[in-house]
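User: Quick sanity check before I run a bigger batch. Here is a single chain. Can you write out its predicted 3D structure?
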Amino acid sequence: MKEIIQLFIVLVCFSCHYTRIDDSINLGNKYRYIQDAPNTIIYHKSKEYQGVGIEIVPPIVLSYKFNNRYIIAKSLNVDEKTGNNDGKSIFYWIIDKETNGDLVKPLDSLYFNNQLRLLNIDMTL
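Assistant: Done. Predicted structure follows.
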């Protein structure tokens, strides 16, 4: 009977253990898209991804595409204090993966499309 109680206690303890599975998407050159909220693109400095990184595109990433050299993204600006996105702006991003995590500034749609043409980036969102 003592063994059954011990087994029950062990099962209860391990059933409460939560295992987190990494479902981020590797975009190449240490960039990753985090699918879970807050939907962001990060850069990690370590050789292997360890679950953390520098936020390059803030939440909420609405869409993205990537190739060997660039990542392009579209995001919805969110109020940092309230998390509210009502009436917030849409931002566009062009990330050169050869810059090793340098911060990128958001672009409006006109400048974004001009830069795509100027840099010969053959991707659209």
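The first strand starts at residue 25 and ends at 28.

User: Great, the batch can go ahead then.
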